[in-house]
Amino acid sequence: MLERKISRFGVLILIFVLPLCVLAQKGEKIQTVVIDAGHGGKDTGALGKVTTEKALNLAVALKFGAYIEENLPDVKVIYTRKTDKFVELSERADIANRNNADVFISIHCNSTETPNSAYGAETFVMGESKNEKNLAVAKKENASILLEDNTDAYDNFDPNSTEAYILFSLSQSLYQSQSLNLADKVQKQFSSKGRHDRGVQQAGFLVLWKTSMPSILVELGFINHAKEEQFLNSEKGQTQMALSLYRAFADYKREFESENHTSGQPEVSEKPASSEVGDTYFTVQFASRDKKVASTDKAFSGVKEVDVYEYNGAFRYISGRFATKAEATKRQAEVRKLGYTDAFVIAFINGERGTIKQAEEALKK
Ligand SMILES: [Zn+2]
């Protein structure tokens, strides 16, 4: 029986993976992202005391998408749902496949059997679950298909059978390393804002299995942890999570495109420093605005690796991320030549503004 199932899965793997091999050479730019707000309609997802998972997922998904639309106008954002409606898991993946998306991001909230027993954010990629905890998360999220009228798309997959998940490990995505890279960036952004970091995990999620591009499933936090529910249900919490997702996506895009040398910027012989530095770095601040304009705005054309951050109520525009002050000073000279004569070097420590000295000390460690 097991063998029969494996061979059936084997056929499925051929069906799904072979076309992927052809597609493995995807475009050199990140042009389309599918944002998937988990659950919806009759499928509430996990329940909190005052809200539902489907509502929190949608709120963060819409905010996240809006940040991309505003700041990365070359990226097309497609939502699997923008309202409180039920969408099959296979359809969510199909939306991404049909649109030839470059990235798929599914947004969820976690819960535990015992309320208030766990908290924090974690990000999953498709893969074999290494422990019971991860398996339980996948089982819970995949259980959505029990509400679907027609489950032919899943080849009789039983979301409650552990054996079915073992078979999943055979179908690791071709895009696993890219998915892991994106997941890692998401977790780094979450933790830089003080969220408890539960790390990057792997498990067999139907919605990820069915996609043919780098894809991740984010668990924003535990809805049945009173404090986290309050945070995730607040404007501040949703903005923070959406901004973190945006920054991770923007980082991933920038890195991907610079590696493919199609960033639209003049090609540089050496790899841009921004792909090598972590959350503690030096950068050059060259402009400040009360109203936000996109970092890709033509007003800034000529300035390399523009990014924006908010500080003391204004939007500050920066260029590059460097591991040393000397490299940042070089960039400062370049930016000043472009007319930004007030450009100056600043530092970030663990994603927060700090002094140059603090950054130098943090980087020594
Ligand atoms: Zn969920």
Task: Tell me about this structure.
With 365 residues, the chain is of the alpha/beta class. The protein has two domains: 2-255, Aminopeptidase, CATH 3.40.630.40; 272-364, Alpha-Beta Plaits. It has helices spanning 2-23, 53-71, 89-98, 132-142, 162-168, 176-192, 206-209, 226-232, 235-259, 325-337, 356-364, and strands at residues 32-37, 76-79, 103-110, 121-126, 197-203, 215-222, 281-289, 306-311, 314-322, 344-349, 352-354. A six-stranded mixed sheet has the order 2-1-3-6-4-5, sandwiched between helices. The N and C termini lie far apart (55 Å). The model is unreliable at 1-25 and 262-275 (pLDDT under 50). Bound molecules: zinc ion. The site of zinc ion has 6 residues, from loops. Zinc ion binds at residues 38-39, 45, 53, 108, 141.
Mean pLDDT: 85
CATH architecture descriptor text of the largest domain: 3-Layer(aba) Sandwich
CATH fold-level label of the largest domain: Aminopeptidase
Order of SSEs, N→C? HEHEHEEHHHEHEHHEEEHEEH
CATH superfamily of the largest domain: Zn-dependent exopeptidases
Low-confidence stretches: 1-25, 262-275
Q: Strand count, sense and closure of the main sheet?
A: 6 strands, mixed
Helix content estimate: 25-40%
What overall form do the CA principal axes indicate? Answer: elongated
Distance between the termini: 55 Å
- Biggest sheet strand order reads 2-1-3-6-4-5
In short:
Helix content is 39%, strand content 20%. It is of the alpha/beta class. The radius of gyration is 21 Å and the shape is elongated.
